[in-house]
Amino acid sequence: IIETNGLLYMTLDSNPGGIRIAEKLGLHKHEELPRFFNKFVYSEALWSRLAYRMRDMTVDDIPRVLQIWAELELQEGSLSVKSFLSAKAGQYVVAVDNRTDQILGVCALTKVMENTYIIGLYGVDRRYQGLGIGSHIFSTIMTHIGPDDSAVLFSEHHLQDMYRERLGFSHDSGIQLIAYECRPVRTRNLQNLVDSIAGIRIKRIGDSLMDSVVEYDRKVHRQSRAQVLNRMFSDPECRALVAIDESGDQVAGYGVIHMCSDGNGRVGPLYADSESVAELLLRELIDNFPEMVVKGLIYEPLANNTGAMSIADKLGLKVEVKLPVLFTKQIDMDFQWDKVYCSHSPNFSII
Ligand SMILES: CC(C)(COP(=O)(O)OP(=O)(O)OC[C@H]1O[C@@H](n2cnc3c(N)ncnc32)[C@H](O)[C@@H]1OP(=O)(O)O)[C@@H](O)C(=O)NCCC(=O)NCCS
């Protein structure tokens, strides 16, 4: 930062020498932070020389965006970002340094259903936090929310008060995302999951089954996500299985596992007609694609599906954190909740 943008110099008012040094350097007082004690922030150039612009995110930006995201110790996979971005399912914005063209921050807005948009992937490169870039990207994204629309997000704990009190996300849906501790799956625990169900066949999702799975997803989600799903299933990174009920040759569930930027494999969507079908799909995903879970499994169901939690217990997973779903306006969520075992991605989708 010093080399490219300037010097950020903070001193305490209890040390006149600290202030004199700032004056000798010709720094001007930028801000006074009186919250705990008087702390002066002197800045020469950091604010004035850091010029950035907002632009739409492109597919080429995905590696850098995921690098920022991984450095923030948050998890997302290029498969999700690519599928939603290339299907033009919303507005995806990055803040870019004018001089270096480097991406400094990102935020995503995806249409979930009529008048409802989810905000996700909200992050700023650690080195550039606290300079107003985050608020700027967020307010840029919010300009796409009309007066009749509701915006929704999965809130990190430390930001809940800000979202609720300062940014208008005052409606708590009562729904929570449960993030389980991410760890490799033990073979012993995997054996606790069902390994077969009479009349249910597990198959890879190829071209011939894509339409049936998209239709199954539409019934669960109540909205067609054909564009996003077709892109996702056609992507070489996608590892996806479908459960077929042989009695009527019907889809009884489907599951996807993909690699996140931190090297962990994330399950989602995992939708199924019953807990046993969800269990079987998960077991088969792990058995068929073991390379996805060498480091760890990201398993994040919604708390209103008790079956999903009992699967976590069978796998020996421990709850790490619960994230509430906050809205700017109350909306009707008419999803088939009982079929949702893991959501698609909390950055792009409610379920
Ligand atoms: C949240 C985050 C994107 C904010 O980016 P930023 O560039 O540092 O934000 P700003 O400089 O605009 O704002 C800094 C201050 O405003 C708050 N703020 C953050 N986003 C804001 C917004 N959209 N509007 C108003 N205030 C905001 C911050 O909490 C901070 O307040 P504080 O000084 O009282 O601590 C950044 O801290 C980050 O990447 N955090 C880790 C990832 C994360 O938690 N993402 C949110 C997932 S729900």
UniProtKB/TrEMBL annotation:
Superkingdom per UniProt: Eukaryota
Positions in coiled-coil regions: none
Gene3D superfamilies assigned: 3.40.630.30, 3.40.630.90
GO molecular function terms noted in the UniProt entry: acyltransferase activity, transferring groups other than amino-acyl groups
Pfam families: Acetyltransf_1, Acetyltransf_18
PROSITE patterns: GNAT
Residue ranges annotated for the N-acetyltransferase domain, each copy included: 52-194, 200-338
Protein name: N-acetyltransferase domain-containing protein
